[in-house]
Amino acid sequence: MSAVTGRDAARPQSPPARPQSPPARSWTVLELLRWTQGHFASRGIETARLDAECLLAAALGCDRLRLYLDFDKPVEASERGRFRELVRRRADERVPVALLTGRREFWSLPFEVTPDVLVPRPETETLVDWLLGRVPDREAELRILDLGTGSGAIAVALASELPKARVTATDASPAALAVAERNALANGVADRVAFLAGDAFAPVAGQRFDLVASNPPYVALRDEERLPPELRHEPRAALFAGPDGTDLLRRLAAEVGEHLVPGGLAAFEVGEEQASRVADWLRAAGLRDVGVVRDAGARPRVVAGRAEPRDRQTGGGPDGGTS
Length: 323
Known about the structure:
The protein has helices spanning 6-10, 29-42, 48-60, 64-69, 77-92, 97-101, 125-133, 153-161, 174-186, 247-255, 275-284, and strands at residues 103-106, 109-112, 143-147, 166-171, 193-197, 209-214, 260-269, 288-294, 300-306. The chain is an alpha/beta fold. The chain folds into 2 domains: 29-93; 106-306, Vaccinia Virus protein VP39 (Rossmann fold), CATH 3.40.50.150. The strands form 2 sheets. The protein has a 7-stranded mixed sheet, with helices on both faces. A two-stranded antiparallel sheet has the order 1-2. Helix 10 packs parallel to helix 11.
């Protein structure tokens, strides 16, 4: 190697090339799902994989099916940021997925949900299914009442299946009614569902209906400390009903007969340990064919009965027998 001398020695030397920084970590859809599933599972979240998929789909603005088609697709930093915040709130604050995404499916229909309403549960579809199974003519011009409508899930589901029915949906919360009205509009049934503010049967005093349905608050206050932390994010008024959870159910059972046409049907969602008492209250109120309907998990979920028909002829109970 030759020595550097003269003018060459005075010439400033170029700095050595700086090594290139390694590229930032690039996460694919599948990697994010796997990591998040493990993270949720470690925090005791039972539906870890499903929750991870729902939140990532929300962050990416797509549906869950798209995730499976794009497993190897890198997720942009901005999208990862949105997803990270959703994951944090789900794991650390135990906010329900539906409240993080603002959406929940019920009866295969999309519903908006907010902290003002109870998140619709699959178990409540038992009530809708039972009522529809007792409607002999779905083109009939039925009058239906949904007490304590919340997000409007029951009212909208019934209206979607019964095209000539007129549904009245009540709730004591104006904020909940606003959500329910938007859901009726989004699902194309707003012209056949009327929303009224008020407690229990007060908004429909003197009116009678072919079908009365309700998923009222029925959680016992004495059980509050044992409930999943997710329920802290849902409205207390939609959950709790006195020490044993039956304060409102007792009232509704006593009054429902006055709001049914002859032969009209009433169905109430209940807690597992409340079914036999609610059935007794309905019988005491004069309803016939009272029985208990079980959900997909074989738990007592709905108590239903029928008003005295004009001809006084009755059939079997809603579950093939009485409770």
